[in-house]
Amino acid sequence: MAGVTIVSGLAKGVDTTALMSAISNGGRVAAVIGTSLDKAYPAENARLQRQIYSNHLLMTPFQVGRRALRSNLPVRNRIMTAITDATVIIEASDASGVLHQAAECVRLGRWLFITKTAAQDRALSWPTKFLGRPKVDVFSSAEDIMNTMAMGNT
Q1: CA 52, CA 135: separation in Å to the nearest integer?
Q2: CB-hemisphere CA count at 13 Å for 148?
Q3: How far apart are CA 24 and CA 22, in angstroms?
């Protein structure tokens, strides 16, 4: 895993896959959730959330008992950006919540890596809002990201 810790918001899809792959390969993971510790969202990730809580690192800025609200997700995304060196976007629609995190990367001067397929997708308008900004790069493989980070451009 090249010394990388996978940090995720524990969302469905790519986030779940990344966390589960890292765990099954002996990697380090951390999850920042948009709910209190006594809730799991999405519900189908409850088991994975418990596993991360027990064996890795699970964080939340929300008090136990607080309702799960959609407005919690940008807060979660800001925290993920603040505690990481880079954000990697594999896929995202123009209305995706991860775009809040992308904007935070630009604001905080953190690396933002956008997969080449998303960057070249003419149906998406969001990549053009970020491409050309400092520390925003397009990648085709994990090796591309590792090489950029290793060059000391952090």
Answers
A1: 30
A2: 21
A3: 6
**CA–CA distances in Å: residue 122 to residues 52, 88, 93, 136:** 37, 20, 12, 18
Q: pLDDT tens digit string along 16-69? A: 999 999 999 999 999 999 999 999 989 999 999 999 999 999 999 999 988 877
Look at phi and psi of residue 3 and say left if phi exceeds 0, alpha if psi is from -120 to 50, else beta: left
**DSSP letters along 65-118, please?**
TPPP-TTHHHHHHHHHHHH-SEEEES---TT-THHHHHHHHHHHT-EEEEEHHH
CA atoms within 13 A on the CB side of 41: 16
Q: Residue 74, preceding bond cis, omega within 30 degrees?
A: no
User: And the tokens for 47?
Assistant: 């088991």
d(CA 45, CA 115): 25
